[in-house]
Amino acid sequence: MEPLSVTAPKSTLWQQSTRLFRATGPGLLMAAAAIGASHLVASTRAGAEFGWQLAWVILLVNLLKYPFFAAGARYTAATGESLLHGYQRQGRGYLILFSILNALAAVASTAGVAMLTAALLTQFIPLPIDLLALIVLLASLLLLVLGHYRVLDKVTKVIMLCLTVTTLSAAALAFNAESILTPGFVSPSPWQWAHVGFLVAMMGWMPAPIEVSCWNSLWLLEKQKQQLVTPKQALFDFNLGFITTAVLALVFLSLGAMVMHGSGGHFFPSGAKFAEQLIQLYSQVLGEGSRYLIALVALLCIFSTTVTVVDGYSRTLALSVQLLRGEEASERGLNIIMLLVSALGLGIILFFKGALLPLLQFVMTLAFMTTIIFAWLNYRLMTSDNLAPSARYGLAMRLLSWIGMAYLLGFAALFIYWKWLG
């Protein structure tokens, strides 16, 4: 008698899609961290001041930074360890360098996104922006300490869906709106010496600081504790989040270009005034009745960014300390670092006294000036002998990486000359 052969039933398209969606999370969390100040502020402002002229720059920046962001998902999926473990394998000095720059970025970025969240809260709660920033940071800490990654994963997916649908709807309505450009209006050129600072700031957080790749790496490890995530699923999740950030950056630029460009209006540096302008931008195309709905969606968007920023930076700092000191990971150590980063971020907010745009300009510029080092660390890791040959970057990714690092280094040198020598 011949043995019976048992063939496993093929999965339906719905079952495959469901498994793929359940495997998503780290990439969407990365998108939530990215779609904050760089999109709500930098992209919208770029469109408002220069129309569509910087659209290709946004796409180019995302393309040139892609290999450095992809390192987080690809390295962890291939090795089962984080990028920080990889830095340590390269040499203790590399991990120390990353940790110092990451600590500076953690405090500055936390201050920037917390102040923007507080500015949007002023549309609902008539309290000083400093006090609202404190409330935002305490709420973020409470969510992270009590809910951990599982809650963060679920909440972020809902917020990202709401934000994407609402923003795309606003852009679609804006395309059909009557043009506000006056006859004979000539758009100012962004390619002037005076605008170098803005260009560098915009590119610094577009789509996000490169150290976010380390967060993606750690979030992927957390996701793998809950379920099996294959390398293919991890890369799909990352690409989904990365492409979403690039598309929405263009959508936010389009809103600024179609609703504010040519109107003669400029964004206020004050946090509360800026938030009011931002909400007005949406309500002009969606209708005044949508004002509070849009304010709520924008608030949820930037609040999710604040939560992911506090969580991501704190996780990387905690793991850095653990690896450098040879200690075991502990929730207590992570919570202490979260509290310390939030407290120092609040100190920076108090220093800037509610001046949102100058603070964000400073944070984004700092991100751009340190980006080349983070990019080099990730490239070195993805081409090292510690990685299996099949997992290393091939010729195309190596070439794109070198072009990306040349661009980052070139603009950093240009900014230094513009700021201190020109």
Automatic annotation (TrEMBL):
One of its GO terms (molecular function) is metal ion transmembrane transporter activity. The chain crosses the membrane at residues 20-42, 54-73, 94-121, 127-146, 158-177, 197-219, 240-260, 292-313, 334-352, 358-379, 399-418. GO terms for cellular component: membrane. Pfam families: Nramp (PF01566). It is found in: Membrane. Its main location: membrane. The keyword Signal does not apply. It is a multi-pass membrane protein. Keywords: Membrane, Transmembrane, Transmembrane helix. This is Divalent metal cation transporter.
